[in-house]
Amino acid sequence: MAVYDDISDAYDLVYTDVDQKLPFVSELLQKHDRQQILELGSGSGLFTIPLKQKGFNIEGLEISPEMMAVTQKKFPDLVLHQGDMRNFSLEKQFDAILALSSALTLLSSHDEIARCLQQTFQHLVPGGHFLVELPNHPIEIANSDGTQEVHCNDDRSIIVVIQSEKTEGRWRESWHIFRASAEGFQHKEVLCDEFLYSPDRLEAQLLETGFKIVDRYGDLLGSVFDEGTSWRRVLVCQKP
Ligand SMILES: C[S@@+](CC[C@H](N)C(=O)[O-])C[C@H]1O[C@@H](n2cnc3c(N)ncnc32)[C@H](O)[C@@H]1O
User: Fold this and answer.
1) What average pLDDT does range 20-39 have in this prediction?
2) Global pTM?
3) Best mutation site among 19, 25, 59, 85 for ligand 1, i.e. most ligand atoms within 8 A of its Cβ?
4) What mean pLDDT do residues 5-20 have?
């Protein structure tokens, strides 16, 4: 079972800042007249759905059936492909491919990232863009190792506590999901681990795959990237 199956109904309670990030993504796509889009690890559709509503012809690739079901419930007409970003063949090419909200760090090694980059390259038209948004782990870890955060829905029937810690070479979020219903209380713990990728190695892999790195940003608000302070690392890449 995919890890995200277990957190699918709590995911949208945690990621609540997509509205602030959407303008950067949609303006970038518009600026380059990108219309046919694929999002890798499209999750619950937090980006895919509003981009579709803005008129982009966007499709999602997602490994978790439960995350796909959440998206389909919110927006039944979206084209979603169940598949693995390390090995997919959609037999078409896109103007742009997105890997947002740390999706690449859910792969467990640079070899797996290399496989994903190759598949991505093959699914892009010449001139096509690849937008990657990742954590800048040293800054995120320095600021939030050993911390916890709480999220809940309006009637507090679902409460999510996320504990973040660096462990065994991974950046781990332990999601504790508490539910209250007529059947009583439930609690489950789900471990969501991020691979601590090497930024230099990732950039080298992008170049080896054939991509050009055309821009770097510090977040999806378009901030300037600063290795020593930025929490996020956004790479705008292009297939020549
Ligand atoms: C952190 S979520 C991001 C969801 C969405 N992109 C967003 O920004 O809200 C990462 C998503 O990638 C999916 N995922 C993880 N590994 C995957 C893989 N190998 N292939 C396709 N999807 C994968 C997870 O199931 C999850 O829904």
Assistant:
1) 98
2) 0.97
3) 85
4) 94
| Number of domains within the chain | 2
Distance CA 55, CA 48 (A): 11
CATH number for the domain spanning 100: value is 3.40.50.150
C-alpha separations of 68 from 32, 44, 45, 131, 146 in Å: 28, 6, 8, 21, 31
Q: Are residues 149 and 222 in the same domain?
A: no
Contact between residue 211 and residue 99 where contact means Cβ atoms under 8 Å apart: no
39 & 92 share domain: yes
For the chain, the average pLDDT equals: 97
The pocket around ligand 1, CB under 6 angstroms, is made up of 2, 4, 15, 39, 41-43, 46-47, 61-64, 67, 84-86, 100-103, 106
| CA 145 to ligand 1 center in whole angstroms | 23
What residue numbers bound the domain in which 162 lies?
139-194
In the predicted structure, residue 1 carries a pLDDT above the cut 70: no
What pLDDT score does 168 carry? 81
pLDDT over 90 (residue 82): yes
CA of 42 to the centre of ligand 1 (A): 6
Nearest to 40 by CA among 127, 136, 118: 118
For atom 6 of ligand 1, which residue has the closest CA? Answer: 42
Q: What percent of the chain has pLDDT over 90?
A: 97
